[in-house]
Amino acid sequence: MSAQPELHITVAGTERAVAAGTTAGQALEADGRTTVAARVNGELRDLYRELADGDAVEPVEIGSEDGRAILRHSTAHILAQAVQELFPEAKLGIGPPVENGFYYDFDVTEPFTPADLKAIEKKMQEIVKQGQRFQRRDVSDEDARAELATEPYKLELIGLKGGASDAEGASVEVGAGGLTVYDNIHPRTGELCWKDLCRGPHLPTTKAVPAFKLMRTAAAYWRGKETNPQLQRIYGTAWETKDALKEYLAFLEEAEKRDHRRLGAELDLFSIPDEIGSGLAVFHPKGGVVRREMEEYSRRRHEEAGYEFVYTPHATKGKLFEKSGHLDWYADGMYPPMQLDGGIDYYLKPMNCPMHNLVFGARGRSYRELPLRMFEFGTVYRYEKSGVVHGLTRARGFTQDDAHIYCTKEQMADELDSLLTFVLDLLRDYGLNDFYLELSTKDPEKSIGSDEVWAEATETLRQAAEKQGLELVMDPGGAAFYGPKISVQARDAIGRTWQMSTIQVDFNLPERFDLEYTAADGTRQRPVMIHRALFGSIERFFAVLLEHYAGAFPAWLAPVQAVGIPIAAEHVPHLDGVARRLRAEGIRVEVDAGDDRMQKKIRNAQKQKVPFMLLAGDDDVSKGAVSFRYRDGSQNNGVPIDEAVREIVEAVRERK
RNA sequence: GCCGGUGUAGCUCAAUUGGCAGAGCAAUCGCCUUGUAAGCGAUAGGUUAGGGGUUCAAGUCCCCUCACCGGCUCCA
Q1: Strand B: which of residues 531-560 in chain A lie with Cβ below 7 A?
Q2: Is nucleic acid strand B under 7 Å from A597's C-beta?
Q3: Other beta carbons less than 10 A from residue A374's beta carbon
Q4: ipTM
Q5: Low-confidence ranges of chain A (pLDDT < 70)
Q6: CATH H-level superfamily of A65-253
């Protein structure tokens, strides 16, 4: 022992001396099941890799973010191994971990069937049970090419090494630096079972996969490009415990129950009739109530915030979109033109901004009018590709709560600042509370406007964002060519994120439309233009709220706010009286006078997610009272009518 | 647009090997008069997404179209 040179290392913050040849796993006393990898000097490594003098080692637990990624990546390897054992002709694509799971892409002649998936899953279980070791091995480029001669896609990745940034998963296979291969070694025979080009790290053995499940198959373009061949992708999920997997599956079930398309039908809110067409929704009376309440509250808040309201048509001559440039770069997203008036092309509008610009330019503008905030619930039509249309969240016709703010360059900072506050406040009023912001910056490849203007606008957006004290995620190069953008992402009640509001600075359109105002010194100046939509689209926001609340809208939005349920028919007049009083206060109330059992009426109201059920029988009638039943099943009996009315009116007024 | 899957009553789902399209809920009409999530009975509801083909016979097998679902790409 003493003859061996010592290494001075730091283990989880504590300095220690260990013998040379000590592995990360030994230093951490890792069991290989809960501690599955190490972070050495900030870099993730396999447990059995030896430490060097001065290394700092931290444990990576399987349930941590890093640990899960490693677990999922390793499970993806097991998937690929199983597939190649069952389908030896399958060529490997890439197999990275993703949110909640992993996938692996394969080039196979026949797509996988559900039965294949079952067989693959079974094979994977065998591999897990065997406890094959993941063993890392450095290889030269030539050796890698020779070893992977039968894997054309892997060869392509080797060629990309270093510069591979276009495909999200490619960096998992080949990182910067030398290439590595991971061999799967049988624990008893020492036999090489399988191998894959991979950067690692991995779990110590396949046995360290506690729980996984294959989810579905799908086609995916090689390296994400539409022009590349399509591979067959298998999605799976893997978790640190069986319970965590169960929880995740329960989450998926819950998400399915909240699906706005399902709730839309169940609650009679909207439909998307075949007769009208894909992506074109109709709102039924109950959905109409919710939508109208959403719009009215938004309109009121915009009025208070100094917006002016405009209305513009749904169709226009093509010339307008030539001027805006949309026909150059957005024509694919537009419905094809109809020819009218002897050959003039008319288009349905995909965006409102050009029309708002015409309003701005309709007369001379003074600096005194700025910032000029022009708002419209503007309905637009976009020709979405057939495979992407999805309920109300991806429609072909939808209404934006769209506004364009024209201001001076000096006003821009204040305007963006107050705008962001306004946006977040309003979203909170609708019941969303958990946000993060995303800042999309210039793509040097395609952008107009000088670097200085971009830098200034981007910096202004960043400052406005930082002031909110919210998490800020950068999206480098993600901006449109005409200006930087901030988007507000909201997390819903079950933790899913949705892109909501966008705030976009535009250097392009004011030029194209030659927008001007007269400054105090009499000179003509170009205004800055800010596009912004809070809901994004009303339909999408409607869908997000529907899913967020699982259909149980707060009272102010609920289509029916209260329903009267008589114990017997003779109690109906009493409830009719209560309903009259509520209606006088603007409450949407119904009395269920049908000849169903009272229990059945409660069940119906419960399924319709009515916030307040007002029951009345002999006791209540004699006391001039009603009995509350709330959506959560709790009750409050014998409440005097005055008090009951007050409670409901207050809940609605306070938007609870 | 691409790949795969699925289309049976308003909704959820049955229908043996290719052999008479059926049930629950909802709806309508009765009966029952009820204290916190389904009372009882009856009636009605279908060119099995649409079109073509194979067959003595097609919901079922084959082809085309459409829609929807899950992905990819794209996106509010």
Answers
A1: 533, 536-537, 539-540
A2: yes
A3: 21
A4: 0.93
A5: 1-4, 161-177
A6: Threonyl-trna Synthetase; Chain A, domain 2 (3.30.980.10)
